[in-house]
Amino acid sequence: MSETQDYSKSAEPLAHKTSHENGGSDEISVLGLSGLLADPQLPIKRPLWELMWELLYEISPQAQITALAFDSINNRIIAGTYPDAQIWLSIDGGFIWTLKKDLNNETPAQGVIHSFTFDSANNRIIAGTNPDAQLWVSTDGGDTWTLKKDLSNESPSQNEIRSLIFDSTNNLIVAGSNPDGQIWVSTDGGDTWTLKKDLSNESPSQSRVFSLTFDSANNRIIASTSPDGQIWVSTDGGDTWTLKKDLSNESPSQTIVYSLTFDSANNRIIAGTGPDGQIWVSTDGGDTWTLKKDLSNESPSQTRVFSLTFDSINNRIIAGTYPDAQIWVSIDGGDTWTLKKDLGNVSPSQNYILSLTFDSTYNRIIAGTNPGAQIWIF
User: Residue 232 belongs to what H/E stretch?
Assistant: First the structure.
């Protein structure tokens, strides 16, 4: 049996493509493809501002996304809610979310997940709650959770774990509580906890440790408080603490430092306050502070900087506000700030950016809002 050519020279690919518009320049080359229906795809990593600003998810009937964290080992985003203290998990950069734990079903029932942190040394996620100041730990990327400490059983009783941070130099977890402004430390991944500082014994007395961050350049833990907007610094892994700034002495007085983050590119600590929505910056490990932005002077006026996070890929600081749920961005270590999104203008209007985190796998900022427990991606 003889074989014959079943196509003409004019039908070969090169000649065929030239018959298309623009000489075939819009044709897609298949060289190097495997022939599979879909070749393996890597996570899309784009500059931050090429991302669409979009609502990804709404956790109904929850009212608020009160806490967010990123598990950099398992590439998972963790979200905590109010009023049922639920823990939700996303493994795809925030598009799909799965309920993993409802602490409202526990005894005693918990109403809010106020804080998360990720312990990269022990590959653990830690969650802090209200109203019993409980500390829950997950060792499997958020799939299951175990209660490790209940500070409502302490004397004096604590009712809220408002803040958590992981000290990556000393491999310890730090927790801040309410109503006695206590600072607790765990050196074993959250299994056991030791009280290190009670700020209710200070003068003036502080009742809440609202925020914590870790300055990896200077090996310092930074804590912020209310009702005097104080900033405290520890240089020895949380054992001892020194007051560095009291913003209640400023004019206008700031009574709460709601949020802290560390800019690892510029070795700066950023603090967000109320009631004037101010942003303060320290360039020396928390020893001295400079006011960089007062959002109460904007129109519409913003009165609280509820959340801060640092984008370590694009070297940008992100701030979330109240009462218009605005997103502000700094690309120069906090010196100047630009409004990027106003969620007060969407429908339904959002009031708070209560939580922020950065997903370094997908190069995304994740924001949690109130009301409606919405999750936005930037």
Answer: strand 230-234
Residue 97 sits at the vertex; the CA angle it makes with 94 and 102, to the nearest 5 degrees, is: 130
Backbone angles phi, psi at 237, to 5 degrees: 70, 25
In a domain, 43, yes or no: no
pLDDT reported for residue 54: 86
Beta bridge partners, 342, equal 326
Q: What's the pLDDT at 60?
A: 83
* Cα–Cα distance, 110 to 137 (Å, whole number): 15
pLDDT of residue 34: 42
DSSP conformation class of 42: P
Domain interval for residue 306: 56-377
Ramachandran bin of 235, using left for φ above 0, alpha for ψ from -120 to 50, beta for the remaining angles: alpha
Give the 3-state secondary structure of residue 203: coil
**76: how many CB neighbours lie within 10 A of its CB?**
22
Report CA dihedral (245, 247, 249, 253) to the nearest 10 degrees.
180
CATH number at residue 205: 2.130.10.10
Q: State the DSSP H helix or E strand holding residue 16, giving kind and residue range, or none if neither.
A: helix 13-18
* 269-300 pLDDT tens trace: 999 999 999 999 999 999 999 999 999 999 99
Match 């990327």 to its residue by tokens.
141
DSSP conformational letter for 252: S
Q: Could you say which residues of the chain have pLDDT below 70?
A: 1-52
- Residue 52 is predicted with a pLDDT of 57
Structural domain contains residue 320: yes
pLDDT score of 229: 98
pLDDT at 378: 87
How many domains, the chain?
1
Is 42 among the domain residues?
Answer: no
The residue type at 326: Q
Residue 46 · residue 363 · CB < 8 Å: yes
249 CB-contact burial (10 Å; exposed 0-12 / middle 13-18 / buried 19+): exposed
Rounded distance between C-alpha atoms, residue 222 and residue 321, angstroms: 21
The token duo for 34 is: 């495997």
Residues 6+ apart with CB under 8 A from 268: 262, 281, 282, 283, 333, 334
How many angstroms separate the Cα of 341 from the Cα of each of 49, 317, 319? 11, 14, 11
Q: How far is CA 28 from the centre of its chain?
A: 40
Cβ(90)–Cβ(69) under 8 Å? Answer: no
pTM (2 decimals)? 0.86
